[in-house]
Amino acid sequence: MDISNRGVDDESILASRNYIRWDAEGVEKTPANEEEDIQAVADMINAIQKTQYNNHRHCYSGTHARTQGIVRGKLIVHDDLPKHLKQSMFDHGAEYPVVCRYSSEPGDPGLDDRIPQPRGFAMKVFNVHGDMFLAGADTPTQDIEFNSTPAIDLADAKTTREIIDLRIKYGHDRSELYKHLESRPDTTLQKFRDTVRNTHLESTRQYSQTAYRFGEFVAKYCLVPSSETQKKLYEETVKPEQHDSDILSKWLQNFHSTHDAEYLLQFQLCENLEDQPVEYAGKVWDPEKYPWQTVATLVVPKQDSFDYETKTFWEDHIRVDSWHGLKSLQPLGSPNRLRRIVYPASSALRRKMNARKEVQVKSMNEIPGPVPPALGDFIKVN
What we know:
Blueprint: H1 8-15, H2 34-56, E1 66-77, E2 94-104, E3 119-126, E4 141-147, H3 157-170, H4 174-181, H5 187-191, E5 206-207, E6 212-214, E7 217-225, H6 228-232, H7 247-258, E8 261-269, E9 293-300, H8 308-317, H9 334-354, H10 376-380
Antiparallel strand pairs: 1-2, 1-9, 2-3, 3-4, 5-7, 6-7, 7-8, 8-9
Helix pairs in contact: 2-3, 2-9, 3-4
């Protein structure tokens, strides 16, 4: 359910609902042996990176290794939000510069676009100020990451350890991998990634998958393509017999060279921890019962989405990490505690093997590449 065009009655009803506080008892419950599971995952991700290094003679991120495009835009926070949505950096109307990266989720940078897999989207939002986590305390940015499936198969640290281990052992043999996946109680969740709709990325809805603090409350978030042109592209699907192996990045480049893009940033607030688990991210929060509510609009003007200088700088120096940002948007639950350890470990190996330093950029202008003319004056004052 999308209530971005909600009426006054809907708004008052939503404002009066009993949303769970982020620090309420039971929101987070760290299981025994989680630290051991997380370290095992970090080691396995590094092993995957080393394998890819042997194939490409360059080290990439352990996940989301294939860049499909990078664009610049601005995030416009609505100034007429109801009180329950005026949370964290969304507590007042504002406009923030952003740089966004489209990606394919697996850790293989050479993955053929014709193979259906989850796709990713990440934003670095600049000029965000407030009480930050230590990892990004010197950088006024908020990192926000998305995935094209509403639930994540790596649903908690224990599951992640088990599934990554199976993919390493049997990823080269789908029938053998499926034999092991089909013996699991979550087999449908684990096999879903191979059946996702392989469509134009500009028409793809993106999800946080995991839960986050949202000021006083707990929420998930999503990004919804909102222009009519983007919506129509949903019907454009990849046809393996007709399209090239890089069709997704070509489609993006063609679209962004001639069209502006617009997305709605929406939040889904938590009301029932049994029905909306935080620790286990493999369950979709029912949008009919817990509606999505719009807080901001992402605007991306026409530009080249595949600038080589921008792409190279991002892949060699940038890390997107949702623990880089405001404490009032704290990542919650087991998958996010895992990311707090695994992401820095993955990044450290990339820098070591590529002889590159991680760069914490403080403004859009520190990322090489052309700024769209439509953003020129906005960037000068931001």
